[in-house]
Write a structure and sequence with these properties.
InterPro entries: C5a/SBT2-like_Fn3, PA_dom_sf, PA_domain, Peptidase_S8/S53_dom, Peptidase_S8/S53_dom_sf, Peptidase_S8_Asp-AS, Peptidase_S8_His-AS, Peptidase_S8_Ser-AS. One of its GO terms (molecular function) is serine-type endopeptidase activity. Keywords: Cell wall, Hydrolase, Protease, Secreted, Serine protease, Signal. By secondary structure, the protein is an alpha+beta fold. The chain folds into five domains: 74 residues, Peptidase S8 propeptide/proteinase inhibitor I9 (Alpha-Beta Plaits), CATH 3.30.70; 309 residues, Peptidase S8/S53 domain (Rossmann fold); 148 residues, Glucose Oxidase, domain 1 (3-Layer(bba) Sandwich), CATH 3.50.30.30; 122 residues, Immunoglobulin-like, CATH 2.60.40; 133 residues, Immunoglobulin-like (Sandwich), CATH 2.60.40. It contains 13 helices and 48 strands. It has a seven-stranded mixed beta barrel. Strands 8-9-7-11-13-15-24 form a seven-stranded parallel sheet, sandwiched between helices. β27 and β28 form a beta hairpin. The longest helix is centred in the middle third of the chain and has 19 residues. Bound molecules: 2-acetamido-2-deoxy-beta-D-glucopyranose (10 copies). The site of one 2-acetamido-2-deoxy-beta-D-glucopyranose has 5 residues, from β31 and β37.
């Protein structure tokens, strides 16, 4: 079976561009022991609550917000916490009670970062974008932001709150100050530098960023003109910095709930967060809190997550919330790299031509000025420089050797050049971009580097015609950088393979749509180098927040439903790409929602749709007809054709298995057909028509594999209007799918990160009951959920040595259970022997009996729970 670990966190992640091969490290979600979020019933006295917790708990945060009243508390005595929590949850004043969960700090894939203390500048003649110069920044061109900016639309006065690591507001491109007349004009620090997700928060007024992520996100929205030649999507917005992370570590969902509510009450027009954790359930407390804010008229964008490799149904919190816009990532049309600037000359010309290269190891390039020499002039050679150079090769000590990448190792190429006396070697790429090479083991080589395939070809053609090409190398210490962009013909414009897939376990469409998130240049804290190129849905999400600001300036409204509908209807669905090639069919709706957003079309659309997507649910809950309305707000009558374009249908599960397939999921040919109440309508100026959509799900598919069908309804108007409405349904029953296999729970050691099973009957010596020896190896109770489960229960069952099969009675749940709103995959709990009621299980032999509620299951029906028993283990306590 396929085992995958539970992804629970990061939101700035990876690029799927071929030159980056980092693998995302998934971390388990964690709950903060003994900490709870308590929401009060509005208007009910909390004196009973205060009495109950008096002396038992400290208050972490108070939620005195219009949309969320309550507290988060930390019980002093962890042994009694869950017991007390159960009493509190039963109080009449308590509306909801949730465990505090902790979300990991966004961990971006850093493609390039500046050098602290160096003034970086793009050393091209044409650089800063100013009001009279066209915006040519590729993420802006791809999303039509350039067309809005050309009309002078800059998001003037719109307040955008960024929930993140803070913002380096002292950065010149981020306004240089914090306060009413500054770019970063509002916000606060909810946590303090030392907060790590587990300790106490020390709020203060200063949301300075000591991490980096938030400053990058802020620049994507609103960077001012700068030496690197780009601006944010909406440079005239007013930014709010709500800092929820310390300099290191994680953030609790109580802090995230407080930050969203504080931003809302401070009058934010748009709230964005590039943070999250895999789950698939819109009922998580943070998601619920964000949905409430959207219902009050504030659009909220949250990054969809970077777990695309996991497969379907991996929507992340809080992007999975109802009405929350979950933002997918598309790959940039260009490979973007900031390379140190050097120069070359041809023959005796005094003209120095600038170029960029990536330094290798070693990199003693400073002051090196030497002509190029190449072992061959063939720019298609696959094994350039792999063979020993012929005997008549000149002494290469006075040259930089130019070799094409491919076949043998860089070290082999460097050794062959060094054997002919070379001290310097420059590779040219055989793929997109450039990468750092390491030939430090080769004796005699003082510096190595790489240039792009295009530049390499240019050098070779000059050498071929007999020119002398002299490189005047820089070691990069002058801070001059060259923006190299090479067309990404492999994945450019497709959904980034790292972008997480929906839908939610309850068949809500996720993500909503996407924007470029791979290889994005933006601001970075000045102390960390001022600028950086990062990849992840963390980068696509703020772009959409900025675009919403632009649209609101054009349309004079921030109505979240209208904006979501406009963005979805005007987005362009893209062809599926598995990371290496494009397919003939559109990428499924659970991967790209409405598609790649088009800001200008959305801002000026006159034909509006009433929905951003249609979900026909699964077979048990099949919706046989859904309506949508087309409204013509223009001044002309239009004729509209309605048709549909199916995407490929995808199987959720592996064949003959209860386990989900991972990316790329298996495709199948069947597609739903849709019937419309009318397929040609005329809609008069100012009129609306309602269209009924009647789907016939595909037949003959393996329904037990949960095939998800999807597609786009095309709405084509005689005025040139071309809108699309994504739809989806599941040709199988989610309720009938097993969420937990009977043998998918086991015992491991708390010290074993791989969660490997220990042999049956393993004996653990636990710290004496009530002590907390953190060095002890505890039994790790491990479960592996095939699919998500809203509720996981566990019972501790004593096992008699003499009658191992005799059914004994549970002595209670292990402390920390139940586990709510579980994602699929493995998770574990280090167990010190404590039960939910606060007592410790006596020394003895036990097994753990689990049950997991099926999707759409009825908790009161025994048959709606999948059951599994762990192997036997035994515990005793240290003296
Ligand atoms: C803006 O760019 C244009 C075109 O490159 C240039 O002519 C103009 O001087 C620039 N304006 C400012 C204020 O830099
Ligand atoms: C450089 O000089 C060589 C040899 O004289 C000549 O063949 C070549 O065309 C020259 N290159 C350029 C770009 O003028
Ligand atoms: C540019 O130069 C700096 C400083 O020497 C170096 O640290 C960095 O790795 C270089 N960057 C590239 C892309 O080679
Ligand atoms: C699917 O049906 C279930 C059960 O009625 C419901 O809870 C869920 O919200 C539905 N999903 C959608 C997207 O309508
Ligand atoms: C769809 O609209 C029609 C009227 O155009 C109405 O009769 C019908 O009840 C609606 N159906 C749904 C599912 O809302
Ligand atoms: C509607 O427009 C889409 C996209 O341009 C096109 O693929 C489709 O064929 C058009 N449908 C009709 C019925 O014209
Ligand atoms: C662990 O023990 C230390 C003293 O040994 C105590 O200060 C601390 O509060 C205990 N922690 C927990 C979580 O019980
Ligand atoms: C575990 O211990 C029991 C009782 O001693 C024994 O019957 C059983 O065979 C043991 N199982 C294993 C796998 O060693
Ligand atoms: C106990 O149950 C196991 C698995 O169900 C079975 O293989 C074994 O024979 C049973 N042992 C006894 C003593 O009944
Ligand atoms: C907790 O449950 C165990 C087993 O049912 C019982 O022996 C113990 O007395 C209970 N402890 C408390 C504090 O209720």
């Amino acid at each position: 079976m396929v085992r995958l670990s539970l992804a629970a966190c990061l939101f700035a992640g990876l690029s799927s561009a071929v030159q980056f091969d980092t693998v995302e490290k998934k971390k388990s979600s964690s709950r903060l022991p003994g900490a709870y979020i308590v929401e009060f019933e509005d208007g009910k006295s909390t004196s009973g609550f205060n009495k109950e917790v008096a002396g038992q708990a400290t208050t972490r945060l108070e939620f005195d917000y219009k949309l969320f009243k309550g507290v988060s508390i930390q019980f002093n005595d962890l042994e009694k916490a869950d017991d007390l929590a159960a009493n509190i949850a039963a109080l009449p004043a308590v509306k909801n009670m949730w465990q505090v969960k902790v979300y990991s700090i966004p961990d971006p894939q850093i493609e390039w970062v500046g050098t602290p203390g160096v003034d970086h500048a793009i050393s091209r003649k044409k650089r800063a974008i100013n009001e009279t110069e066209a915006d040519t920044f590729s993420p802006h061109v791809m999303t039509q932001v350039n067309k809005l900016r050309a009309k002078g639309i800059t998001g003037k006065g719109v307040k955008v709150a960024v929930i993140d690591t803070g913002i380096d507001y002292k950065h010149p491109a981020l306004g240089g100050c914090f306060g009413p007349d500054c770019l970063v004009s509002f916000g606060t620090d909810l946590v303090g530098d030392d907060y790590d997700g587990y300790n106490t928060v020390y709020p203060d007024d200063d949301p300075m960023d000591c991490q980096g992520h938030g400053s990058h996100v802020a620049g994507i929205i609103a960077a001012q003109e700068n030496s690197m030649g780009f601006t944010g999507v909406a440079p005239d917005v007013s930014l709010g910095a709500y800092r929820v992370f310390g300099c290191d570590g994680e953030a609790g969902n109580d802090v995230l709930i407080a930050a969203f509510n504080q931003a809302y009450e401070d009058g934010a027009d748009i709230i964005t967060a590039s943070i999250g954790g895999a789950s698939g359930w819109s009922e998580e407390p943070w998601s619920v809190a964000v949905s409430r804010i959207v219902e009050q008229g504030v659009p909220c964008t949250v990054s969809a997550g970077n777990s695309g490799d996991v497969g379907m149904f991996y929507a992340s919190t809080a992007a999975n919330g109802k009405k929350v816009m979950a933002i997918a990532s598309y790959d940039n049309s260009q490979y973007v790299a900031l390379l140190n600037t050097s120069h070359y000359t041809v023959n005796d010309s005094s003209t120095k031509i600038e170029f960029g290269s990536t330094a290798g190891s070693p990199a003693a390039w400073g002051g090196v000025t030497l002509p190029l020499w190449a072992p061959n002039y063939d720019t298609t050679v696959v094994n350039g420089g792999c063979d020993a150079y012929p005997d008549d090769t000149p002494d290469l000590s006075g040259y930089i050797v130019l070799v094409r990448r491919g076949t043998c190792t860089f070290v082999q190429k460097a050794q062959n050049a060094a054997a002919a006396g070379a001290k310097y070697i420059m590779l040219y790429n055989n793929a997109g971009g450039t990468s750092a090479i390491d030939v430090s083991t080769v004796t005699g080589i003082l510096a190595a580097g790489m240039v792009t395939a295009d530049l390499g070809a240019q050098f070779i053609s000059l050498l071929k015609e007999g020119s002398t090409v002299t490189l005047e190398m820089s070691d990069g210490s002058d801070g001059k950088v060259t923006l190299t962009q090479s067309r990404n013909g492999v994945t450019g414009g497709s959904v980034s393979t790292f972008s997480s897939w929906g839908p939610t376990w309850e068949m809500d469409v996720k993500p909503q749509f996407g924007a470029p998130g791979g290889s994005i240049l933006s601001t970075y804290p000045t102390k960390k180098g001022s600028y950086a190129v990062l990849s992840g849905t963390s980068m696509s999400c703020p772009a959409v927040a900025g675009i919403i600001a632009l649209i609101s300036e054009v349309r004079g409204t921030l109505d979240p439903t209208l904006i979501e509908n406009l963005l979805s209807a005007n987005a362009n669905p893209q062809l599926f790409n598995d990371g290496s090639k494009f397919y003939d069919s559109l990428a499924p709706v659970p991967q790209q929602g409405g598609g790649f957003i088009q800001a200008y079309d959305a801002a000026y659309a006159t034909v509006l749709l009433s929905h951003s997507s249609l979900s026909f649910n699964d077979t048990d809950n099949f919706v046989s007809v859904l309506n949508f309305t087309i409204e013509n707000t223009g001044s002309e009558d239009i004729e509209i054709d309605i048709s549909h374009i199916p995407t490929t249908t995808v199987y959720t599960l592996i064949e003959d298995s209860i386990y989900p397939d991972s990316f790329p999921n298996e495709f199948t040919d069947g597609a739903a057909s849709l019937e419309f109440s009318e397929s040609k309508v005329s809609v008069g100026a100012g009129d609306s028509v309602t269209i009924e959509v009647i789907p016939t799900p595909p037949e003959g598919l393996a329904s037990e594999r949960l095939p998800l069908w999807s597609g786009y309804i095309a709405i084509n108007g005689s005025d040139g209007t071309s809108l699309s409405l994504p739809y989806q349904g599941l040709a199988g029953s989610l309720h009938d799918a097993q969420v937990l296999a009977s043998d998918d729970t086991w015992i491991s050691k708390s010290t074993d990160e791989s969660l490997a099973a220990v042999p049956a009957n393993t004996s653990f010596t636990l710290p004496a009951a009530g002590t907390n020896d953190s060095s002890a190896t505890l039994p790790a109770l491990v479960w592996y959920l095939a699919l998500g489960s809203a509720e996981l229960r566990a019972e501790v069952i004593p096992v008699s040595l003499s009658a191992p099969n005799a059914t004994s009675k549970s002595i209670g749940e292990p402390a920390n259970f139940p586990m709510l709103w579980n994602a699929m995959g493995s998770n574990s709990l280090a167990w010190a022997g404590k039960l939910v009621n606060g007592s410790f299980a006596p020394a003895g032999q036990y097994k753990i009996s689990y049950r997991a509620l099926r999707i759409f299951g009825d908790a009161s029906e025994s048959s709606d729970w999948d059951k599994s028993e762990s192997p036997v283990f035994s515990i005793k306590y240290a003296e």
